[in-house]
Known about the structure:
Layout: E1 43-47, E2 54-59, H1 66-80, H2 89-112, E3 116-124, E4 127-134, H3 155-162, E5 165-169, E6 177-184
Antiparallel strand pairs: 1-2, 2-3, 3-4, 4-6, 5-6
Helix pairs in contact: 1-2, 2-3
Amino acid sequence: MSTTRPYSPGDRGPEPSGASGASAPVPSSGVTEASGAASAPAAASASGEGGGRQARRLTFEDASGVVPLARDFTREALYAWGWLPSATADQRAAAEDVLLVVSELVTNACLHAEGPDELLITCEKKVIRLEVSDRGAGQPAPRTPHRAGRPGGHGMFIVQRLCLDWGVVRTPGVAGKRVWAELGAPA
């Protein structure tokens, strides 16, 4: 089952659940522009293409069509990091899971938090971490009881089922939150 923590994995020592940790956030200075990653008014940046931890950032300032924009941006990152094109059905399914989770997180920010501010995607040791920041005060959670036959309310249930772990990070004194999710590559 997923957890909601007041901090990111790795920020306070080893995870008792065995969840993968993450490095500190990607600095905004010294980050190179991702070629063709997003069109105006959204801004995109990338870092770490040489190896190790790789990251890409997309800002949604005054952007429209943010869900397809986020999916396209994520798909480009998956190509750049070798998750696409997929050689096997399992690899294809893993990449599609990443795209679905991005869609769900960005959609939730649109529906419940006045829209997303930023999407940060990082890849390290076969784990993709997605972070969507917004200005919303709400707390995302899978709807319980989950009713598969009813429309709506499936977003966080899908995130919970597909991800290794997920949670919410809030910064004291700052409005909004970051909803993060981690997915693993197939073996």
